[in-house]
Amino acid sequence: MRTWRMTRKRTLFMLAVYVCLALLVTGRVAALQFVRGEDLKQQAYEQHNRGRYISARRGTIYDRNGVALAVSASVETISINPVQLKENYSAQKISEISTALCELAGLAETARIKALAAFEKNSSYELIAPKVDKEIGGKIRAWIEENELSGINVDEDSKRFYPKNNLAAHVIGFTSVDNAGLDGVEKWMDSYLQGTKGKIMSEVDAARRELPFADEQRISPQDGYNVYLTLDETIQYFTQKALENAIEENQVLEGATAIVMDPRNGDILAMVSKPDFNLNSPWAAPATIQDPSAWSGTKPESVKILQETVWRNKAIMDTYEPGSTFKPITAAAGLEEGIVTPDTRVNDKTIQVGGWDINCWKPNFHGDESFREAVYNSCNPVFVNVAMALGVNTFYKYVRAFGFYDKTRIPLYGEAKSIFHKSPTVVDMATASFGQRFQITPIQLASAYCAIANGGTLYRPRLVSALTDDDSNIVKRYEPEAVRTVMSAQTSETLRSILEGVVTYGTGHNAYIKGYRLAGKTGTSETLQTDSTGRYIASFCTFAPADNPVAVLLVILDHPNVYPYTGGMLVAPVAGKLMEEILNYLGVDRRYTEFDKTMMNAPVAVPDVVGMTVAEAQARLKEFKLDFKLEGSNTGKDALVVSQTPKAYMEVAEESVIILYTEKMEKEATVPVPDLINCTYDDARLILKQVGLNIKATGLGVVQKQKFAAGTIVAKGTQVEVELLDPNTH
Amino acid sequence: MPKTRTTLKKSAGKGAGSRLSASAGAMDFWMLFSVMILVVMGVTMVFSASAPYALSRFDDSYFFFRNQLKFALIGFVVMIVTSRIDYHIYKGKVALWGIIVSVILLVMVRVPGIGVEENGSWRWIGLGPLQFQPSEIAKIALIVFFADRLSARRIKPTLNLLDLLPYAGIMILFAGLFMIEPHLSCTVISMLVCLVLLLCAGARLAYFVVGLAGMTGIGVAAVSFFPYMKDRVDFFINPYLDASGKGYQIIQSMLAIGSGGLLGRGLGKSMQKFLYLPEPQNDFIFSVLAEELGFVGVVGVLSVFMIFFFRGMKVAMQAGELYGSLLAAGITSLIAIQTFLNMMVVTKLIPSTGVSLPFFSAGGTSLVILMAAVGILLNISRQAGAEKI
């Protein structure tokens, strides 16, 4: 009986165990259904509903004037449902359908083989032809309707197109096949540009077949917003062209970059990085690849090459040693702290810091000079002395204030972090004072120059100004962002006048543009990589007009292979001419200074003297300070002028010669162009005038290049363009 | 505890009195009622869950439904028959022969031509049109044999190690036979039922503590030794490791249960049965039920099961004699253990193994044998006069 009693007890115990298990299962089901219910339901929904997506139209990217830089064209994507086809049609019929479809879609051989294989697959979605023209899509639609086919889909899609090809490639960026931004603004603003995909939903089983009686549901796509950039397409174009020419002329080996900013608000007007790529084929082989036929751009190793070369935006991703272009920062600190004034007497004799000799680039020094002149001459010891007087703390306070320790937060991915002294010593400071032994990004320097140019405010570089919707309503505005004030307006003004002098009288000489009052500073630095001795980075940073700057321009050439590698020799002329184009385009008036007038003949428009007598013409030309020369047998005072060279309204320099023809000539009078190389401006002008030619000069110094080579036969009166360059600059 | 003692005497007396006639008393109404509800719901769920799979596989939505209905009717008849057979006739020689026949059948399963291979397992015997799983019969045979032998010992109240040795031998023999099929879930279920019987028969509790520790050890060893067991554990912990492969079933099961909510999608409206759940009419029928009928449906079905288990265990306690008591507890526990294992697998409380849900999962022999076993249970209830209507 004891056994029996125990059996009853233990049976009861087992029943209790079963009750516990029932409660456990109930609790678990409750947890799955109520706690994780929403999540599981969503997962289930996603697998039950097969969606064919309808792409939203990706927003357009415009420049500041509304020029389209990236647009989305409406295209169609052809796909099939192989399972559905196999259910509905015989193998024979499917083979007919596939052949006809490939024909209609106009597929090339390889695509055709892939498409035919797709028909064999056991899936519900196979891509046949992505992004085909609307016309092809329409033909396929008609064919489907005509033959009452099912299992073939023609869906709206969009394709990115970049009308300007390489222009501003790094800034604009590009997208993947499924319209996701991969680089540049396309990536940064992706969430706005993308919009929301629409969907055609249908319920399917695990074999991805549509369920009987299931409804098809259509959710319309929501188009993306349009993005307005601060870039100016024209300035971008000028800058790109100028850089391309500079690279070719100076045999630049490692690429180049240029940034144009509006100092008044930090707007990026242009940003060029070379080498670049065509946005319409970003995966194409870069020019440096030996065997382009073996290239496949989508392989990881290829992408790595692309990222290191053509996709690399040197303006924000590269760090470099700025060299003397950094000196204005030291000068700003010295002026702001009252260490120096422009007229303080300084000396550039060699000094010693921490056992290191620091001397001026000029072998026998400039000697005693004013601080202003020291900047013109870019004397390193003078800047070291200023920094020493400031002290480490104060000097680096300014370096930080100018933003050299922070990223500029330009709205682009991949901005590099500068390499600046963490806990600087006196020696660090001494070398930093003239721009060496640290690395910054070009965009940091350009931003700092904006602060110098605009009265002392550091701005965050602005690249996107506004978003608009389909109806051109502004959805969002991006205002300029002032980061901080780095110096007083007074200091800014003083520094601008000094930097203007650098271009007018100093090492920036070759950037001189009459009437536009450029200010700036040159820079030359050897790269720090030990394996590439003799690799220089030549740069020039300029802004204009010096008294009211509207543009800041930084040009950097990485490893030019033409001696001398200096910013003053190689970059200043490029930057000067580019700035001239930009200011011209922006409609900035030329204001000729007294200096301009002593150095150059002022320009004048040629008056129309055709039809006048020679005497009348002579008087008229004299009014305009122009000379003349007669051509033709009739040289009498009352002979009528039948034609003139240069023609009326052309702009020439004062004292130019106008050739007056008193009879109709079969051919214009011609003359060989004399050799002008190494002549000064005045010499060149006189030599040309003697043979009846006119001069059109740019730059200061001696003739470096002339438009027509010596000996070329040209018409008399022709303007011969010459480029002057100061060979004694740094 | 004077009250308990009186009840004991009373029921013992009743049992002894009613043993003369197998059909003397009335059947336990609640037990019969709960089983009938479970079978009806089971057939309905088989129809709902299997229709898309049947249509896709056999081009006939009713394929499984028709089969299940047929076997449910056969099962009903069998149940009535067994409920009228005095359960004492299974004692002694019959019990012994049950074991011998089971062993022979389990060996024959591996004989090509007689045994049928499916997915790498030898579980079926096919004799012309008749196909059945010997393991289903073996489970019942084990219960009957254990109940018979254990009830034959009345001298000592507790079973000592030496007494247990023969039982352990039988268990090891059957475990071995099941494992060579291989059929893990059947091994686990039948061994658990045997342990329940040993427990109820009065084996020392200390053995169970030691046994539990030993089982844990064996379990760990098995997991590290058999790669297919290790896989199961890995994918139990994180089924998303291979969401479209080894983790697929359990993920799909949870998606089904999770999307049920309070009231479910409605009968017949499961989405997961559309080939997402593999063979939704079998092991994962509970998931489809949870999806279609929601939490309310799950609690309802569990309640009916609990009524059945409660009545079954009550019959065991009131059987009035050890043999009937152990037999009732064994049959009830067999169904209970299988039920809970199935539910715990599909809700991912334990690693996945193929356990069917009694009365619900599609399968002819299983249903008929289950109902035959319920018939035996009903017969015990009659003789115990557990609850008269």
Spell out the key features of this protein:
heterodimer, A: 730 residues, alpha+beta, Penicillin-binding protein 2a (Domain 2), Beta-lactamase, 4 domains, seven-stranded mixed β-sheet, five-stranded antiparallel β-sheet, 23 helices, 22% strand, globular, B: 389 residues, mainly alpha, three-stranded antiparallel β-sheet, 13 helices, 3 strands, 68% helix, disordered N terminus
Task: Give an account of the 3D structure.
The complex is a heterodimer of chains A (730) and B (389). With 730 residues, chain A is an alpha+beta fold. Chain A is built from 23 helices and 31 strands. In chain A, strands 2, 3, 4, 5, 8, 16 and 17 form a seven-stranded mixed sheet that branches. The N and C termini of chain A lie far apart (116 Å). Chain B is mainly α. Chain B has one domain. Chain B contains 13 helices and three strands; from the N terminus they run H-H-H-H-E-E-E-H-H-H-H-H-H-H-H-H.
